[in-house]
Specification:
Elements lengths: L1 E5 L10 E5 L13 H14 L7 E4 L4 E3 L2 E2 L1 H8 L5 E6 L9 E3 L8 E6 L3 H10 L8 H12 L7
Helix pairs in contact: 1-2
Length: 156
């Protein structure tokens, strides 16, 4: 299952559009440092279901895992031929990742922000400005809930 929410601006309290795409099993098993192999097909499937390509995409994951080591966000940016900026919002640290820790709400646990196609300081400011009083912005909670609540396809 893949889900996305579109929003009109960083501070939007609710989605302008929601999409889910039912997909078959994972493209590959999880491999540390190669999360993109499993997740990229889902992202591309749900983005293809949108009426038009977004200019900015916020993902749950890292853009860069290290110097010249692309993460999910950089792989997505490349797969889209650089047509959409990508902001990565990761919930846990990854050793060596190029990401800025950002505190939101009253949490003492940061989110880790990275970007490609958009200056990093703009990405950090955008995530800070996202709606919601807690560590995880409202719309990121919404897309997570959408992906979990939509029924998976029955086995063939």
């Amino acid at each position: 299952m893949a889900a996305c929410v579109a929003f009109a601006g960083w501070g939007a309290p609710s989605p302008a559009l929601e999409r889910t795409v039912v997909t078959q099993g994972a493209a590959s098993d999880y491999e540390p440092g190669a999360f993109y192999r499993r997740e990229l097909p889902y992202l591309l499937a749900v983005l293809a279901a949108l009426p038009e390509p977004p200019s900015l995409i916020v993902i749950d994951g890292f853009v860069w895992l290290g110097d010249e080591q692309p993460g999910l966000g950089a792989h997505l940016h490349a797969a889209l031929a650089g047509q959409s900026a990508v902001v990565g919002v990761a919930k846990r640290p990854y050793r060596g990742a190029l990401a800025v820790p950002v505190l939101r709400g009253h949490s003492e646990q940061p989110l880790y922000i990275g970007a490609i196609g958009l200056p990093l300081d703009e990405a950090v400011a955008g995530v800070r400005a996202m709606h919601g009083p807690h560590r995880i912005p409202t719309l990121l909670k919404r897309v997570d809930r959408l992906s979990r609540d939509t029924p998976s396809p029955a086995p063939a």
